[in-house]
Amino acid sequence: MRKIILPLIIIITAIILIARIFYLQVINDSLKLQSENNAIKKVFDFPERGYIYDRNGKLLVANQPSYDIMVVPREMKNIDTLDLCNLLNITKEDFIKKIKKAIVYSPRLPSVFLSQLNKKEYAAFQEKERKFEGFYTQKRALRDYQVKEGANIFGFITQVNEGIIAKNPYYNSGDLIGRQGVEQEYEEILRGVKGIKYLLRDKHNKIIGPYKNGKFDTISQQGKDLTLTIDSELQKYGTDLMINKRGGIVAIEPKTGEILALVSAPTYDPALLVGRQRSKNYTELYHDSIAKPLYDRGLQAQYPPGSPFKIITGLIGLQEEVIDEETGFVCHRGFSYGRGAFMKCHDAGISKLNNGIYQSCNTYFANVFKRSIDKYPNPSMSIDKWAEHVKSFGLGEFLGTDLPIGAKGLIPTSKTYQRAYPNGGWRSTTIISNSIGQGEILTTPLQLANMMAVVANKGYYYTPHIVKNIKGSELDKKYTTKHESTIDPKYFEPMIEGLANVYNSPGGTARTLKVKDMEICGKTGTAENKIRVAGKTYQLKDHSIFVAFAPKENPTIAIAVFVENGYWGTRWAGPIATLMVEKYINKKITRKDLETRMLNGSLQDEYKKIENIIRQRFPEPSKVEDSTTKTIARKEEVVN
């Protein structure tokens, strides 16, 4: 037996090797493309990227032709460098730098020498192209924006870097790739598939025809079109309302989770990142560390939610049965929770759930929170139960949107306070600021808009998303999966009644914003705002916050508005939210007084104060910690 095993192994191995060689040399000759690489030139046919439309079918992003000058260093011969530099309007130093970079990438493979020529520049080069052996033009498609709003939604396209090329064999030097926004998130769908032609060259490097009669050539496939959930008219209106202000607006369709508007201010024209000046423009935007136009405040900025969080506090109190609709607390202009510790309030008298909401009584919700935390045997158990309720609204979590950026905010748990108080000793009054959306709580505008969608739906939400339809494909099922909150649907009715009275009641905090014949449910908010510069803390004007949904019955829009340094909720955020709701539902504006004030209003003087503080205390803006990125543990005295 042993005598035949070794010869058998040898025979089987030989058969396998012969079969493999026969397959490679006779049946499959595709590897000849690699072995004959010197005689074959690959020419890519780049497809158009998919078009982008808004929810109503309006074209937002199309394509325009562009041309790159490519170079193969090894094929360069007898180049008149001065003539080429003059033709392309570059210096000799630029020429040398670009050639060196191309050689580092590969002496034999094409690299981009000069990108994104317009038609005039392309025509001028094409006339003399034969004089510059080793150089040729490559047609590509650049983005052509039909609107000036939504740069934070679209993102932009840029050339791939060496790291991307190393990781993904699809890309070669000079290829374009989506960055940020839907361009990045849906890159593989939007980009399409490159076509390739293999051309045979003779010993003089001249093209003599297709290789193997085009047997290995492939046809490019255009990228698929995207239909966004965005209402472009609403997006534009929100962008206009936020001119000369900083902050974010997020509007969601409650029944679907579709994002209707995603405004970040300040913003920029997406066309700035197209063409020969894109690199210079991006650098200027990137280094603006004060206004931060590349920073999507709707998705990334983390603010204390302020009084809108009282909605959650009240609902948890009802669910935990520590209060009912008729439970009342006496307010004496504030809530005392320890020796010398007093949370101010503008209210006085007896507050119950309804008037507690529409008058935004700090005392009422401080008492509700205290009862909720004191219900369980120890505060650690209580705060974790509280956090479970809060997170069921999508707060303190990455919501899982189809956008590549975002922040999770912060909802404290027992671990938070165990780190802060390693020896124990904390209790409900220690963390009472959480009751009114201050303390350690941080939320993004997207999360607060989603919170209002939960309230509008009386207990559930769908993951917010920006793409409504992909041509020829199905949307991911996670965007059509319902998420239930931990609050019983019956408890939303009294809360919604209180939110309606924010507009309708004579004592409502948004009574001056009421729109005729429209039932809006909303909540004002004000959040304390501090910055730290060079180790010193400065108190700034509070952030203005407003959340709402409408109509009261069968809501079609839920919205959150943050205006940085905007004083109080009804000064800036409230009017903007009201106008956005009316614009979406009625397609017109009746509150022209609010519109005029918001369109013409400016907070630039407040922002200049911040810049002056930074310049005086520390010359490097990157050293600033503000309330959009870091919270300071505190017990605030806030009046909403």
Automatic annotation (TrEMBL):
Its EC number is 3.4.16.4. Pfam families: PBP_dimer, Transpeptidase. It is a single-pass membrane protein. NCBIfam families: pbp2_mrdA. Signal peptide: none annotated. The keyword rRNA processing does not apply. Residues 47-209 form the Penicillin-binding protein dimerisation domain. InterPro entries: Beta-lactam/transpept, Beta-lactam/transpept-like, PBP_dimer, PBP_dimer_sf, PCN-bd_Tpept, Penicillin-binding_protein_2. Keywords: Carboxypeptidase, Cell inner membrane, Cell membrane, Cell shape, Cell wall biogenesis/degradation, Hydrolase, Membrane, Peptidoglycan synthesis, Protease, Transmembrane, Transmembrane helix. One of its GO terms (molecular function) is serine-type D-Ala-D-Ala carboxypeptidase activity. Residues 247-577 form the Penicillin-binding protein transpeptidase domain. The chain crosses the membrane at residues 5-23. This is Penicillin-binding protein 2. The keyword Protease applies. It comes from Flavobacterium sediminilitoris. It is found in: Cell membrane; Membrane. It is an enzyme of class 3 (hydrolase).
